[in-house]
């Protein structure tokens, strides 16, 4: 089974090697590594690992915390696409598409950004409409969205006053970015970790490119 580990580690040479060695000694395979942030002497890394079915998830935490200074921010099952070129593959699929690009974004962005779900919205407040959503996206009918229309990328944590009580109980973390004029893309994941500003910037950059790609004639 695959898991996504988010680690806060000292930003010094060899630290990822030490983490990889600790996991290897525990018989745990690393599938991919994304460096999310670096600054103030620390780095934040997302590491996807493969754990044998007869192993418990806590063994991941035990392994990585043998490395001095490593902190586990979150651990959750991961069922996304495990490859190095997720962004490029999504943009390539948008370039080949003749329509349906919003659904392609909704389906592809959760894999790219290790999120649980995505939705493309148009309109504002109570009049917002979902024009595309990934299969795991929650129903948005009747949910007030006072942050629409969206003028700039925004982090939308689960304790916001507009967030339904069930979502708060599930600790649904969200971020949203304007897309191609009057639309917005909303990404969420349950149980954390909270989206970081580096992830928000990555989504905004990717959507800016996607908006340009979708205006080109399909290849």
TrEMBL record:
InterPro entries, alphabetized: ACT-like_dom_sf, ACT_dom
Ranges for domain ACT: 4-80
Pfam family of the protein (one): ACT
Name recorded for this polypeptide: ACT domain-containing protein
Species this chain originates from: Klenkia marina
């Amino acid at each position: 089974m695959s898991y996504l580990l988010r680690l806060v580690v000292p930003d010094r040479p060899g630290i990822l090697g030490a983490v990889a060695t600790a996991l290897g000694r525990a018989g745990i395979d690393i599938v991919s590594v994304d460096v999310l942030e670096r600054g103030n002497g620390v780095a934040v890394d997302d590491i996807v690992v493969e754990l044998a079915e007869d192993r418990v998830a806590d063994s991941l935490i035990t392994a990585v915390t043998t490395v001095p200074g490593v902190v586990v921010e979150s651990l959750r099952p991961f069922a996304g696409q495990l490859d190095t070129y997720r962004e490029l593959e999504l943009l390539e699929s948008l370039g080949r598409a003749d329509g349906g690009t919003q659904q392609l974004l909704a389906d592809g962005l959760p894999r790219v950004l290790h999120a649980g779900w995505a939705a493309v919205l148009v309109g504002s407040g109570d009049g917002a409409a979902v024009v595309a959503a990934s299969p795991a996206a929650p129903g948005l009918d009747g949910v007030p969205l006072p942050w629409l229309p969206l003028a700039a990328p925004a982090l939308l944590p689960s304790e916001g006053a507009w967030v339904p009580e069930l979502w708060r109980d599930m600790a649904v973390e969200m971020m949203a970015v304007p897309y191609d004029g009057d639309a917005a893309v909303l990404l969420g994941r349950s149980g954390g970790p909270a989206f970081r500003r580096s992830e928000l910037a990555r989504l905004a950059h990717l959507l800016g490119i996607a908006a340009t790609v979708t205006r080109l004639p399909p290849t």
